[in-house]
Amino acid sequence: MDYRFELMSQDEAEEIAYQWHYDGIYAFYNMEADEEDLEEMLDSSRRGQNYFSVYDHEGLIGFFCFYKINQQTTEIGLGMKPEQTGKGNGADFVSAGLAFAVSRDHPKMITLSVAAFNRRAIKVYLKVGFEEEKRYMQATNGGHYEFITMIYRCH
Fold first, then answer.
1. Would you say the C-alpha torsion 139, 142, 146, 149 has a positive or negative sign?
2. Which residues are in the N-acetyltransferase domain (predicted)?
3. How far is 56 from 46, CA to CA, in rounded Å?
4. pTM for the structure as a whole
């Protein structure tokens, strides 16, 4: 699948923040559920050069954010349009984001954090080569949740 990455526009940020709503346990990932994430996504100065919209032949299907932690490590965050999840395209989508991060930042490692209950995403991350590094508790979205930090070692 061919994906196109574009620096996120304000219209795209607002669409993702206000129109993308996940069902069931995945509602945890609705932007409105986390005030801090929502504010960052909607503030163009905070998004800066870190947030990218991802397109395929059908249109906007997801986003990635990239934070260069140091010369060796880039941290990523991502989301797929709710209608695109659970269709078997996750590995291709994440692989495209990894390739973009490598071409952009040239890291030795890429890290991400995922809620431990999100087995569907964890399965995708393991499939593309991430490894679990550590587990921790974090206060977010009105509660305390277990998260997993995962590492991808760039080749």
1. negative
2. 3-152
3. 26
4. 0.94
pLDDT digits (tens, 9 = 90+) for 28-37: 999 988 888 8
DSSP of 65-116? EEEE-SSSEEEEEEEE-GGGTTSS-HHHHHHHHHHHHHHHH--SEEEEEEET
Instruction: Give the Å distances, CA to CA, from 138 to 58, 135, 144.
Output: 36, 10, 5
pLDDT of residue 141: 82
Angle (CA) 117-122-142 rounded to 5° is: 35
**Across the chain, what does the average pLDDT equal?**
95
In this structure, which topology does domain 4-153 adopt according to CATH? Aminopeptidase (3.40.630)
The residue ranges of every structural domain in the chain are 4-153
Tokens 């991400």 map to which residue?
A: 112
pLDDT of the residue at 154: 95
Cβ–Cβ < 8 Å for 117, 135: no
Please count the other Cβ atoms lying within 10 Å of the Cβ belonging to residue 20: 19
pLDDT at 143: 83
